[in-house]
Each structure stands twice: as C-alpha cells, then as structure tokens.
Give the backbone structure.
Amino acid sequence: MALFRQASAVRPTVGLTNSPAATAPPDGKKAVLRMGLLFFIAGLAGCDQARIQELEEGVSTEAQVRARFGTPEKTWEARDMAMLPFPGAAAEPGARTLEFNRQPAGTVNYMVTIGPDGRMSALRQVLTPQNFARVLPGMSMEQVRKMLGKPMKVTTYALKRETHYDWRFVNPPSTLMIFTVVFNNDLRVTGTGSVDEESVYPKSR
C-alpha cells in the first residue's frame, strides 16, 4: 500500500531525547525486551485462537460469544456498519456487531457479527493489510473507527490541525508494526502509513 506521507512526518517525537546513548539500551537488552513482548503477544493470540475454535458461524449464540470474549468495547447496529465498504453480514437488517478490542497490548481487533436470529454470522480480525488498504483519503474518522476498531493511541497536533490514530499489528512472521491514519481538522483521512514499531517506540525501559 502506498504511503501518503513519510513515516517521519507521521510519528510523534515528544518525550524522546536526541541522544542515542540516552535512549537506546544495549543490544542484548533490546533483544530480550523485544522477545519478551513477542511472547506476551503470542500468549494473547493463543488465548484468542482457543476461544475462536469453540465458536461456529450460524450456530454459536451471542451469549456464547460473550462468555468467551467478555464484554465488547462497542456494539454497532446494522445501520452503523452499512456506511462501510464491503460491510457484508454486518449491514443485514437486525444484525449487531460486537467489537472486541485487543489494543494497546495486543496486535488484533475482532468484529463479531450477530445475525437477526441471534446467532454468530461472522467473526473477523480487522487489523490486516487488506483492511488497511480500504482506508482511503476523504473517509470520515467514524468510518475508520468502525472498520478497524478502537486505536491503541490517539494523538492530536493542534498547530498542524491533524489527529493521528495508531494501531499495532504484526507483519508476518513476527515484526511488530504501527499503522497510522492521519485526519485533518474536518476529521477526514488525508494519509496513511505503516512503520516498524521499534523505530517509533524504542524499547528503552
């Protein structure tokens, strides 16, 4: 996916010092921190996969979904999702979509659609390159929020009149990445970009 702006123009720098020696831990420590984070994220993903395997589209009920995933971050009605490109089952009259957010610690967000009959009709992990490619200039902040779920971080730049939404995801097999959407003062998309998480948030602690 083409980047609308260079990553350096998208990234916040507040709180970072210009001294590499002050911010960068020894290479060995960085490797340990990074591996620890990867193992933690893998553990979260493993738990989710176990829950997903217990559910079946067209069979599992909303109560069964909630029993495995907990309380949703947000519940979207069919009319909310109808404004999205390729909404699928989520826009079917009477359907509701439950958002289960795994940001900021995780690298996924799930949208689970409950059909008019009260049974699960779709379960999607939405933080994917295919979904990122559907975020286009001119889209509203509300549309992006419904497509990708709650971001890991929201940063407002008053002087630039911009707001940046960040999501963490994994570029296979194991590279932690940040996907950013830039909105203008009218809350419309002006650009997107992806960058290695290590270059944005160095593991200096």
Residues 7 and 106 are 22 Å apart (CA to CA). Residues 1-25, 35-43 have pLDDT under 50 and may be disordered.
